[in-house]
Sequence to fold (130 residues):
Amino acid sequence: MRALGPPCQTVWFGLLLRRQNYLVRQNAMQLLDFLKQLKPQELESFALNCCTTVDYLWKLARLIRRGKGRAQAELAVAIERHSDKKVCRWESNPDRWHLWWPELIGADGAPDLPAANDPARPSVDSQKAA
Fold:
């Protein structure tokens, strides 16, 4: 019987990282480009380590490239971890990364925040109400 790799668990480590301890690779790439460079066996192993399937990773990567999809927080962290930070979390969640991981705002390599009138960015009034 074939071993399926590490047990799938929710990856919370990324949600707890502090900004000063977070190391970012300057040459981050998009998920689709990363998947294209993997050999079939490496791709299958990568998918198992991320607790998903190869088909789902390809579908997600194409949707992200077209701006029509994003990874769930746990999957984005797993992708970043198992790609050795070649694919950063904000590449998998380009429109909401700053809401899920505010400690990464201003980190080296982090993209700019959305414009103030962007619905993905919370307003100051909604933060005061909470």
Observations:
- The two ends are 51 Å apart (CA to CA).
